[in-house]
Amino acid sequence: MRIHVVGIGAVGNFVAFHLRQSLHPRHSVIALHRSETAKLLPDAPHDRPLVIERDGATISQAGVTHLPYGEPRNRYRRSDFPPTRLAAQDNPSLRNAIGHIDSLVVTTKAFAVRTVMRKLRNNLSRDSTVVLLHNGMGVYETLLEDVYPDPNDRPNFIFCSNTHGLYSKGFLHSVHSAVGNIRFGIVPDTFSRDYEASYTARKGSKDAHLSLDDIANVSSKQHISPRYLNLRNTIAALTHASGLQASWEPFHNVHIAMRSKLVINAFVNPVSALLQCSNGHVLDTEYGQNIADSVCTEAERIFRNQWTTEVQAQLAAHKSAEGGEFEPTPFPRELHSKAMRREIERVVESTKNNYSSMYMDLMLRRPTEIDYINGYLVHMGKLHRFQPIMNMSLMHLVKMRGAIPHAAMP
Known about the structure:
Blueprint: E1 2-6, H1 10-22, E2 28-33, H2 35-38, E3 50-54, E4 57-61, E5 65-68, H3 92-98, E6 103-106, H4 113-119, E7 129-132, H5 139-146, E8 156-162, E9 165-170, E10 173-178, E11 182-186, H6 197-201, H7 226-240, E12 246-248, H8 251-275, H9 286-320, H10 337-350, H11 357-363, H12 374-383, H13 389-403
Parallel strand pairs: 1-2, 1-6, 2-5, 3-10, 6-7, 7-8, 11-12
Antiparallel strand pairs: 3-4, 8-11, 9-10
Helix pairs in contact: 8-9, 8-10, 8-11, 8-13, 9-10, 12-13
């Protein structure tokens, strides 16, 4: 098996480290680098180990192959400009060096995912598996529109919610500042294979569980499509890497977790970035607490409107099928405003000494992920006839801060 990781920042380095640490040497872990960072690597592709630091102690992991994929960093520094969408020009020598990608873990900034996927398009096939491990939401929809409009040509996609606290201390050096977990779920199959059949059959009972055999039964003597074998191997690799604290869960549950994390980020990231403070100070005043309340209240309103629309569609489909009594799935408790507000307090406390990625982006004049965090909530609000004023204001303020040069002291 060959697992490629693209976006070798704090999270990508962490993922590649633990995959290499846990997998048998016969399986390859390949770190894909932009052209600028590839220049920092030695000539030999195995000569640069990955480093993880935890509580002041460092551990290095060798055996990762480092390859360039050729995509330069966005050259714009002012975050009011949308990130450049560079043409994905094919480079045969780079494409051949990378080879076919069985499994791709994407840990880039949300706004870069589309460009990276275009660049690697010729290395991927519908037999590949793509793990989306980035901040924010809405990226998958843009990939379907711009990169994979044909359902028959799409790889399998895995959605993730990551709560580990991580930041970069240097090239290939990540600090693991807060232990969390990675919850992931598989997007339903284009070709209608039910990846959650075992769980659905026992849903509601204590022994309900997901089974790798629903993806691909390796004990069967029948031929197994590489599409499903690669997916099974990816799930096994992620869950086997104990340092990742990764768990495979029903897609519905993971989607709820992603939305809950989105709301946490919709408060912590822009507020810490605008105030240029650590996460621990964003709730210090009643003003910050009021902003957190408003962000959560608006998010619940959006999610409830979305849930109502989905239930109405399900009810209409049920009536047309002339089925029995219809019982909609209840609105998730995790998406109640009070529950999300408690999560904000928990995350602020557990990462109180950390600085958010948006703080760093604004300080270094880089594009931010605001369009995929608060911007996603604003977009969903429009779709469901609600205007989230606080989230819109935070989005506009971050864009303004990025457009105005930091004034020098007189």
